[in-house]
Amino acid sequence: MEYIRVTKENIEKEHICCAISNNNDVQVASKKAWLSERFDDGLVFLKSTERGKCFIEYIPAENAWNPIEADGYMFIDCLWVSGSFKGHGYSNDLLGECIADSKSKGKKGLCILSSAKKKPFLADPKYLKYKGFEICDEADNGIQLWYLPFEKAAQKPQFKACAKHPHIDENGYVLYYTSQCPFNAKYVPIIEKTAEEQGVKFKAIHITNKAYAQNAPTPITNYALFFDGEYLTNEQMNDKRFLKLLEK
After folding, report:
1. Rounded Cα–Cα distance for residues 120 and 51 (Å)
2. CA distance 201 to 227
């Protein structure tokens, strides 16, 4: 497998794996705009040269859009290998490149979000454990921060206090999201419309800057849905899934 790093210079001609439609698609445009604004913060997007979901996205933890304290670490936004790419060792390739790059930059180690049991859009805890990662912190909603230190004495990353106990003082459905996930550009407006049609109180909060993201009331910022103040899920929804949720 050959890999290529997406940069400011080539982003317009490269597909971005998690949304591989043409550049006129709102999802592609949203994701590429978000990536372009992060490259100066040290973000790396490494992907397969073949079209499909096979990539890793990581950034210095100080610039991550998550409420964590992990100075000197590299934070993995996403490691995604799916479809026909699974089972060929490509996850190992991508993670290996991230480790080598992070070590060359003098980082203390890597950190990434996961959970006790596999959740959609989060790293597989079984794979992380297999690769030597350990749990270093956990929020009340079961979202865990895992880390892979390059030195045993390295200080453990942790969640900020605002994210340890995910709760907000608002009634109804409240969604926090960023443009890091391209699906949000398409489906958040659909959910807003569905909620309005159903007469359901719904508020979408689009996190558009790093400072807000790093002080959010949830360890996951690219999609975190609350109901009556309590955290519900990080799983992106279309209108059908949202309607099923309302039925419950």
Report:
1. 22
2. 10
Task: Name the nearest CA neighbour of 125 among 140, 135, 110, 114.
Answer: 114
Region of 10 on the Ramachandran plot (φ > 0 left; ψ -120 to 50 alpha; else beta): alpha
What residue has token string 């079984």? 126
Q: 70 CB contacts (<8 Å, ≥6 apart)?
A: 61, 62, 64, 111, 145, 147, 157, 158
Distance between CA atoms of residues 85 and 52, nearest Å: 8
Residue-wise pLDDT for 152-199, tens only, equals 899 999 999 999 999 999 999 999 999 999 999 999 999 999 999 999
Tokens 């959010």, residue located? 216
Tens digits of per-residue pLDDT, 122-142?
999 999 999 999 999 999 999
The rounded distance, in Å, linking the Cα atoms of 245 and 233 is 11
Distance between CA atoms of 241 and 155, rounded to whole angstroms? Answer: 40
State the CB neighbour count (10 A cutoff) for residue 52.
16
Q: Which residue has the tokens 């390739």?
A: 93
65-90 residues labelled b (16+ CB within 10 A) or e (exposed): bbbbbbeebbbbbbbbbeeebeeeeb
The β-bridge relationship of strands 158-159 and 68-69 is: antiparallel
